[in-house]
Amino acid sequence: MRVPGVPFVQGRNSFTDADGKHFGIAIHNTSNANLASAEDEADFATRRTDGISAHFYCDKNSIVQSLDTNARAGHAGSTEGNQNSIAVEITGQNSFSRQRWLDSVAWDKLASTLAFVIRNDPDYAGFKVRRATVAEMRDNPKIKAFYGHDDMRRAFGGTTHTDPGPNFPWDHLIAVVKAAVDEQEDDMFSDNDRNALTSANFRAMGVYADLDEITYRTVNGASRTEPNKAKVARLALERKVAELAARPQLDIEELAEAIAKRINGH
Length: 266
Ligand SMILES: [Zn+2]
Description:
The chain has 10 helices and 7 strands. With 266 residues, it is an alpha/beta fold. Strands 3-2-4-1-5 form a 5-stranded mixed β-sheet. It has a two-stranded antiparallel sheet with strand order 6-7. The longest helix has 18 residues, at 229-246.
């Protein structure tokens, strides 16, 4: 999958993925002393010959996709890591402080990009927006969660890399991705759809009209149950109509006479 709205610059890749399936999201930092931008990293990825590759590069203000999410990147040092996760390279270093991390990443773009993958790639159905423990990763290398390069090192071996580093703000990453997943679920219906659903016309749709709650489902199996706003709106409308109908009827002629009297001062 290529994420819509994210620039795609096809990176060089020496791996072939057996089944195109990935389940985890691996977080790295580029450990580049000059802090090359995401664009420069993606550009370098088109010609590097060391076998290293990643699906996404993210810096302070942008994100670039380098490989389709079904491609196998060389990023983990282990078969388990490379085969089961997509790689996100964030420009930064292990020595960054928490505050520097918070200030150095396009968190909104990173979050919306990863939320799109989580919500739309069927392999990520059931993905939990949290960081896996090393024990869980050893137990199940296909665990559907976030983890770092260091977590892969400890779970699967094959590397000495310890990125993204001790001060990487995992809590912040998890929070912004969770929020983006929720937001994209809210966007499942356009405003027009919602207006149509909440209009009294919805009554004509029969079977849904009397449900108190409606469960919306996405293709990847995520679901959200909400009160049936159409039913709430219909009941309110019916109450209003009944209220109006119950009012004493005005006699228009009587009213006209009363107005005329007042105007004429009688
Ligand atoms: Zn790494």
